């Protein structure tokens, strides 16, 4: 049998991709390189977990810098109302990662039957507290509370979630604002994978205020041509096939199939869906059918390990940005 030695090429490629924060899908064994796409390109896995780790270590350095130069320790307050189990997990991770970055973490857990005015009162206290530089109220909130009122009660300068109507408006007209964390994470991964995004056609599936719309604004700012598709879009597969970049933020497990993807396109899967596997155990999948899409895409984020880990890292980064703006000091070098 004749064997080709791909090792030197594989190693070079692997280290090239790794320096760009991208893990080659075939990086473990040189023969994996044979796993080429129909147009002879290779699908690379965009490793959000590794990227987020690097970002968090830069954030930790930035926190030390703020403490050494200005005697400031940024503080992030997270408010959880009720017993939603997914929210409890998110809030726990946020608190842990905030502390690991060397910041102050303030956690407020309120009962499910908390009234809107009680929550407004807590947010107003946090607005006044000088030790709190960032405020995040975990969504969804119980039905008796108007989420919009709560989001807009947060002082816009402490709005590290970037959901305040003023933050949204500033983002939409392209001026300095605190940017929602998941969209900010998507953009970082995209720029790492693609480089300059100018002129790329991005199709975003989903028009939520949390992901779809802010991602669209960020990509417009990067000079992409942006299409926002949603539940009423006609012939979604055809719309997707036009895309150089597909961002799936739908909440429907594995909806986007490989034959919706233009060969070589970059696919960012925001979806986090819990489903049962063949043995009945639960597992996480994205909004993209990874098995078929990774055969066609040029680069793709996995679930888990893609966009997910970026969200908290971006939240920590936003807390530092908010702190520096409040104190009118320059961003630490580690994150500027
Ligand atoms: P959402 O429910 O608010 O919005 C979903 C959007 O998808 C809507 O705009 C809707 O029009 C569109 N949609 C629904 N069904 C569709 C269909 N069949 N065809 C085309 N479009 C359709 O959801 P969201 O908050 O934007 O979240 C989307 C996904 O991203 C979810 O899986 C969520 O868990 C995940 N998410 C992940 C993170 C993260 O940190 N990675 C953060 C936020 C959300």
Throw out a few tags for this protein.
single chain, 336 residues, alpha/beta, Rossmann fold, seven-stranded mixed β-sheet, three-stranded parallel β-sheet, 11 helices, 15% strand
Fold topology:
Elements: H1 7-19, E1 22-24, E2 44-46, H2 48-70, E3 75-81, H3 85-100, E4 104-110, H4 116-128, E5 134-137, H5 147-153, H6 165-172, H7 181-194, E6 201-205, H8 212-221, E7 225-229, H9 236-241, E8 245-248, E9 266-269, E10 273-276, E11 282-285, H10 290-293, E12 299-300, H11 308-327
Parallel strand pairs: 2-12, 3-4, 3-5, 6-7, 6-8, 8-9, 9-12
Antiparallel strand pairs: 1-2, 10-11
Helix pairs in contact: 2-11, 3-11, 7-8, 7-11
This protein binds nicotinamide-adenine-dinucleotide.
Major sheet: arrangement of strands? 1-2-12-9-8-6-7
Bound molecules: nicotinamide-adenine-dinucleotide
Structural class assignment: alpha/beta
| CATH architecture tag of one domain | 3-Layer(aba) Sandwich
CATH superfamily of one domain: NAD(P)-binding Rossmann-like Domain
Terminal residue distance:
54 Å
Q: Give the overall shape.
A: globular
Give the SSE order as H and E letters.
HEEHEHEHEHHHEHEHEEEEHEH
Low-confidence stretches: 1-41
Strand content: 15-25%
Question: Number of DSSP strands?
Answer: 12
**Whole-number mean pLDDT:** 90
Major sheet: 7 strands, mixed
CATH topology of one domain: Rossmann fold
Oligomer state equals: single chain
CATH class of one domain: Alpha Beta
Rg value: 21 Å
Give helix % range. Answer: 25-40%
């Amino acid at each position: 049998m004749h064997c080709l030695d791909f090792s030197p090429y594989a190693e070079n490629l692997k280290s090239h991709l790794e320096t760009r924060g991208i893990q080659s899908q075939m990086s473990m064994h040189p023969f994996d390189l044979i796993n080429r796409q129909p147009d002879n390109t290779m699908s690379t896995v965009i490793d959000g977990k590794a990227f987020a780790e690097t970002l968090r270590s830069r954030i930790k350095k930035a926190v030390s810098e703020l403490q050494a130069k200005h005697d400031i320790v940024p503080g992030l307050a997270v408010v959880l109302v009720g017993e939603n189990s997914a929210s409890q997990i998110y809030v726990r991770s946020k608190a842990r990662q905030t502390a690991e970055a060397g910041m102050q973490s303030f956690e407020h857990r309120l009962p499910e039957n908390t009234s809107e005015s009680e929550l407004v009162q807590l947010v107003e206290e946090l607005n006044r507290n000088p030790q709190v530089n960032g405020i995040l109220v975990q969504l969804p909130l119980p039905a008796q509370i108007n989420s919009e009122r709560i989001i807009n009660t947060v002082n816009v300068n402490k709005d590290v979630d970037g959901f305040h109507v003023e933050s949204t408006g500033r983002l939409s007209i392209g001026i300095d604002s605190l940017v929602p964390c998941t969209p900010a994470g998507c953009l970082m991964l995209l720029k790492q994978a693609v480089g300059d995004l100018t002129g790329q056609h991005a199709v975003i599936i989903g028009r939520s205020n949390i992901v779809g719309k802010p991602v669209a604004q960020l990509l417009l700012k990067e000079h992409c041509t942006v299409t926002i598709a949603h539940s009423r879009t006609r012939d979604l597969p055809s719309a997707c096939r036009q895309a150089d970049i597909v961002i799936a933020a739908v909440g429907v497990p594995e909806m986007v199939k490989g034959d919706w993807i233009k060969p070589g396109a970059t696919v960012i899967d925001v979806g986090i869906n819990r489903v049962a596997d063949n043995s009945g155990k639960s597992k996480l999948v994205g909004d993209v059918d990874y098995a078929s899409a990774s055969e066609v895409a040029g680069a793709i984020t996995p679930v888990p390990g893609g966009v997910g880990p970026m969200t908290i890292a971006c939240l920590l980064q936003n807390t530092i940005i908010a702190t520096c703006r409040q104190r009118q000091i320059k961003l630490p070098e580690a994150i500027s």
